[in-house]
Structures are given as structure tokens and as C-alpha cells.
Design brief:
This protein is mainly alpha-helical and 442 residues long. The chain is 76% helix and 1% strand. Strand 1 and strand 2 (10-11) form a beta hairpin.
Length: 442
């Protein structure tokens, strides 16, 4: 093996180049950079621009945020089927094109309200839905492309780099845009989102290719319906306990960043007067907590990628669930969103997020039959979105009715339940690392 066949420790196949990997990894960062903007913008936007009162603030904010999860549940199975039939690049390209337009109209609910006479909040829901469905077509593709580009011997490293770039996107999003809205106002974030999506579009156009693999022969001509693809996925899940464990762990794991972002931010905004801060200051300080968690996840994700390839997928996934569960449970026991304890809990959850995101996505790609890889990975996205739907909606209700920190306890319990399931099926999950004699299924 020559040096030219490696890129960041990943084996580069003869039909690929380093530029292709760079394009995919850049898109992983850009997608998350744009994806987190509504989470940052909405609390202040709803309070100061739309005029939502304190009584229903948590419920309304959660209801808007949850639109993305509902959209994924409804449409991402179709997206996965399309990616298996027609390729990943075309969906990524047009998804980002639509997202560019969606960010531009996101800032217009007051104008739409003045024109139609309807309440502005109706248009916040509508514009968020347009952005969510646009992102749904693009969001799964970088991870699926990463799986296409790699084999199991170095896939952990590739997934770790992709996850690291996502972490960079989340980190920069919260640190930069929390400060930007404080200086330039909340409307500036929507323009930034449009610019980021436009940049991603050009990266996709000139740096990303669809890899032609044996199981792609005839892709597009078979016209397998989405329902047929999902039936094949569910048939696989019935016999594949390892894949089931991936789906179970994804149910709470996919909501981690959203839950932390939403409820830290609205907890900070709601509590700001009690601690002597303005809402703008509280938004910035809440962004620091989420940013610290993201930095921790970012710093340890490459380490997790190495461990996943050297030690195996199973132990890293179980350890990550334990860390996340502990972090969220401890976060739920705090009473001050601006305290050092909250920041420390954010760091612990970041460690767990790093472990779970790399090991779960890598194991899913390893165990999935490659002819339905897109459908399997988007089924995992459906499970994650159902989890987000559940945790955000229930979290919004208990946030308003029980305590500001109670949503974190709910997520922590779910992480520990997923951990228990993983221990139950431990012996049924294949031991996969770079030394294993494992044959991937086509």
C-alpha cells in the first residue's frame, strides 16, 4: 500500500480522490453550521419579533423545532430510497439549493402577516417546514457517501472525521452566531444560513461524486418503490440484532444536540431576569454551554474513530451511552443554567456524543446490506427523528409544567435504557474492527 492510497488514515479507492473526501467532509460541517441556526435564533426571534408570551413560550418553541423531526419521519424514507436509486449527489445538491431559498424567506413572517392579515406565528411554522423539508433531502447524504467511499477496515476513521466536521459546524454555529445575533440582530442569522447553504451547493457541484459500486448496477432502472425498500429494511431488522441495537441507540442519541441546544437556550432566556442578565446576554451564555459540549465532542471524535477501528464498535457504543446518560441526568439535577456545573455536564455529554455518533453510524454502515444502504441509514434517521419528536415535545411540556431542567432527565433515562438493551444483545452483535475477518454484505 503506497502513501498515495491514504488520506487522514483512510484508504482511498482507485476510483476516488482526496478531493472527493474533502468535499464530503466540508459538507458535513456546512450542513450542521446552517442546521443549528434556527435553534439559536428562534427563542429571541419568538420573544422580541413575534411577541410570544412567557406562558406558552416553551411549548411553542418546541412545537416549531419539532417540525423538522416530523418532516424527517414522513419524508426521509423516501429520500433514502431515492438515494439508492438515483445517487446521493443530486439529492444533496438540490436540497441545499432549496435550503438557500428557505433561509431567505424565514425572516419574513411579519411581512407575510401584514400582507395576508394572518398571525405571524402561522408563517413561522410554515417557513420552518419549508426549511426542514429542504434540509431533509440533503442532510443524510454526507454520511451515506462516506459509507460508500470506505470499507470496514478504515470506516471508523472516516465516520469520525465526518462526525468531527459536524461537531465543528455545531461549535462554530453556537459560538459565532450566538455572538453575531447579539451584535447584528437575529435577522442576520437567516442571511448567514442562506450563504452557508449556497457555499455547500458549490462544494457539492465541484468536489463530490457518486461512487459506482457493483450493487449500484441498474440503479434508477429498477424503480423499487419506497415501500418496497422499507419492507426490505424491516425484514433485515427482524433478523439482525446488531442493526436493531444501532436503531435503539439512535432513538435518544439523535436528539442530544437538539435537546441540549433547545432547552439550554430557552432555559437561559427564561431565567435571564432572575440572574440579572438580558435575553441577548443569556442567549450568548447559553450558546457557550452548548459550544463547550460541542468542543468536547469535536476533540474526542477522532479518538473515538481510532478506537472504533482498533477495539471495535460494540464497546465504544455502550460506553458512549453510559456517558451521555450520566451527563444528562446530572444536568437535570442543576438549578442554574449559568453555573459551572451545567458547563461540566455539557462536557460529559460531549464525550458521550462523540462515542455514540461514531460507533453507531459505523456499525450501521457495516451491518447494512449495501444495496439498501441509503434506506437503512435513513431508517436510522427516522428512529432518531421519532426520538427527537418525542423528547422535544415531551421536554417542552415538562419544561413548562415541572422544571426547566427536567427534559435532560428524560433523555438521560432513555440513554441508560438503550445501554441496557445493548448489554442484553451484546453477544449477537458482530465484533468488527480493522483486524476482524468480516465480509460486508452487498
Amino acid at each position: 500500500m503506497t502513501k498515495d492510497n491514504k488520506f487522514l488514515g483512510i484508504t482511498v479507492a482507485p476510483d476516488l480522490s482526496r478531493k472527493n473526501f474533502i468535499g464530503v467532509f466540508l459538507n458535513s460541517a456546512l450542513l450542521l453550521l446552517a442546521y443549528m441556526i434556527p435553534t439559536i435564533a428562534l427563542p429571541r426571534f419568538l420573544k422580541e419579533t413575534i411577541g410570544i408570551g412567557d406562558a406558552n413560550f416553551g411549548t411553542i418553541n418546541s412545537a416549531i423545532q419539532i417540525i423538522g423531526s416530523v418532516t424527517v419521519v414522513i419524508f426521509v424514507g423516501f429520500v433514502g430510497s431515492l438515494s439508492d436509486r438515483y445517487g446521493r449527489k443530486i439529492l444533496l445538491f438540490y436540497g441545499m439549493l432549496a435550503s438557500t431559498a428557505a433561509f431567505l424567506i424565514y425572516s419574513l413572517p411579519l411581512s407575510a402577516s401584514a400582507f395576508t392579515g394572518l398571525p405571524a406565528i402561522y408563517f413561522v411554522f410554515l417557513f420552518h417546514f419549508i426549511l426542514a423539508i429542504s434540509m431533509t433531502f440533503a442532510f443524510p447524504q454526507p454520511m451515506i457517501i462516506t459509507a460508500d467511499y470506505t470499507d470496514f477496515k478504515s470506516r471508523g476513521k472516516a465516520m469520525a472525521i465526518s462526525a468531527s466536521m459536524m461537531g465543528i459546524g455545531v461549535t462554530f454555529s453556537f459560538f459565532i452566531f450566538s455572538a453575531v445575533q447579539k451584535i447584528y440582530g437575529v435577522y442576520s442569522l437567516f442571511l448567514a444560513g442562506a450563504g452557508i447553504c449556497l457555499l455547500s451547493l458549490f462544494v457539492t457541484k465541484f468536489m463530490v461524486i457518486d461512487r459506482k459500486l457493483p450493487h449500484h448496477e441498474g440503479r434508477g432502472s429498477e424503480r423499487q418503490s419506497t415501500l418496497q425498500s422499507l419492507k426490505e429494511v424491516f425484514a433485515e431488522l427482524k433478523i439482525n440484532k446488531g442493526l436493531r441495537f444501532c436503531i435503539v441507540s439512535t432513538f435518544p442519541a439523535s436528539s442530544d444536540r437538539i435537546i441540549l441546544g433547545i432547552f439550554i437556550m430557552i432555559w437561559a432566556v427564561e431565567s435571564a431576569p432572575d440572574f440579572g442578565y438580558t435575553r441577548a446576554q443569556a442567549t450568548a451564555m447559553g450558546g457557550i454551554v452548548v459550544g463547550l459540549s460541542s468542543i468536547c465532542a469535536l476533540a474526542f471524535t477522532p479518538v473515538m474513530g481510532i478506537l472504533v477501528d482498533r477495539i471495535g464498535r460494540r464497546p465504544i457504543l455502550v460506553s458512549g451511552l453510559a456517558l451521555k446518560g450520566l451527563g444528562f441526568l446530572l444536568l437535570g439535577l442543576t438549578s442554574n443554567p449559568f453555573s459551572v456545573a451545567v458547563k461540566l455536564c455539557g462536557i460529559v455529554t460531549g464525550l458521550g456524543v462523540a462515542a455514540v455518533s461514531v460507533s453507531s453510524s459505523t456499525l450501521t454502515a457495516d451491518l447494512a446490506p449495501k444495496k439498501i444502504l441509503g434506506s437503512v441509514m435513513t431508517t436510522a434517521s427516522i428512529a432518531g427523528s421519532l426520538g427527537t419528536l418525542f423528547f422535544v415535545q415531551c421536554g417542552g411540556i415538562i419544561f413548562d409544567r415541572i422544571s426547566h431542567s427536567s427534559p435532560f432527565i428524560l433523555v438521560g433515562i432513555a440513554d441508560l435504557l438503550a445501554l441496557i438493551y445493548g448489554l442484553i444483545v451484546w453477544t449477537h452483535v458482530p465484533k468488527i474492527n480493522r483486524h476482524a475477518e468480516y465480509k460486508e454484505r452487498t
